[in-house]
């Protein structure tokens, strides 16, 4: 029978061998956290390698994702579908062991980590989702939602601001089933960290409201075990276990140094390490007794079978709740979704209200919340401006659960936590902020796209039309920047109907996030033909055809500027110029349509002009070099929105003038 020392050393050997073979990677963290990993994964983590998607499994997050060989070693050793051949291909093209853990690429990886600090923020989202889902579904004697979240994080995660934002909220929310292990090894890529990281981290987390266990020897399995047991006894606070470790432990000449942080040990040092830790086996060879000591398949199957029996009893006692739990955790929408949303869109169209699209968005939220108990809304301290709340929403207030979150002024933390909530399953999270501040959250939005997660960003005050707050608050390049993120669908609707349809599309989407870019100011209300609803869903459509159907020019408009295009059509007609008006609320969705449809909207050979209060270069792919763009390539000014729009050329007269310039 293998000793616990041997089990930990298997992690060290696999990690250093894989990094050495790739001649790329980070062996130090896996080697330094091997004992912590052995305790957590062998003694505490409730999981089933044969069913990585078991609903009540514990979640494990490697926030210090550069140490990816730690989680790959654990997944391989415990019996997940990650064969040794994939470990040998670490960091190679299409390997299931990529440079950083990637959700959807490797079975058992719960979230994509690498951008430091976001893993712990995702972990907060996992733990929050567990707490809220338990509140909604658990019944006396039937605790079907009852699992923990374990996070490993390093000094780099502690330095990143997003970890401060998320961890402060975790303390406020009292997430007692969240346990984080700080790999306190005193090393980052630049060397020993005392010159740039001198926080009293333990006191900082105590101030956040965490239960903190300081000065745990990260290489003493008994000390680690005692710390985990102590963490489990505190149920109203998250726990931070501060583990003192030696980076690269086992390497006789490079341990405790940044030399083993981000590069292979070297063949001679790998050989020396084998001798130092008593690992005589060839690279990538793991004795059967080591595999037997790690294998979690039987234990995991037993844990899941026990939970299945509990769920069967729950389903007999509460059949409707059980069916709803299955629906929500599988990501399915209610059975009446299609008919309900079709009726809702028709009602919006009948009203044809000329209101701000942020208000139209709130109307959509209010309507959809009636049949979406999985909605988990929120805002970064701008609920009254983003209009992300609804009358029946219940605030998550401190440790009290609900379905609406005031995240405080924490845009990055909000969207990173939302990613964790989405990954957990059971909720559709959305969060609001001013569009200008989406830049604070950009990397979390990008990570949602990378992981194909259904999160919804509600981004209001979308242009210089925002007005008096001035250029610090007026987006110029932001909308284009979001459109360039692969798998991100950006909608900038022009009226209430387009806003309603964009919300429905965002909720129905299961392969990526959506950003809704919304106006502060009122926009025109249009009464659409119902046949247009399907065309709006395609991202771009003909709102008003040229007289006679043969256009001299096509004017493309989005958002609040669409009305300028519509009015310009009438003015141009006075001069005998026939203009087709195209509304393009989502360029991303339009780009995915077949060529025949796209040509029917933007007919080849017809001159084009785009009108949007944003950077002009983005629109060149649609108007070409021979076309023109009414846009803005400078920062804005402080003045009322209407004054600014006129000052920067967003007038019917200027649109007409620009159209004539290309003919």
Jot down its keywords.
5-stranded parallel beta sheet; 28 helices; 663 residues; elongated; 43% helix; 13% strand; alpha/beta; 6-stranded parallel beta sheet
How is this structure best described in words?
The structure is a single chain. The protein is an alpha/beta fold and 663 residues long. Helices cover 43% and strands 13% of the residues. The protein has 28 helices and 18 strands. The chain has a six-stranded parallel β-sheet, sandwiched between helices. A five-stranded parallel β-sheet has the order 1-2-3-7-6, with helices on both faces. The longest helix has 21 residues, at 297-317. The mean pLDDT is 98.
Largest sheet: 6 strands, parallel
Strand content: 5-15%
Helix-strand category: alpha/beta
Low-confidence stretches: none
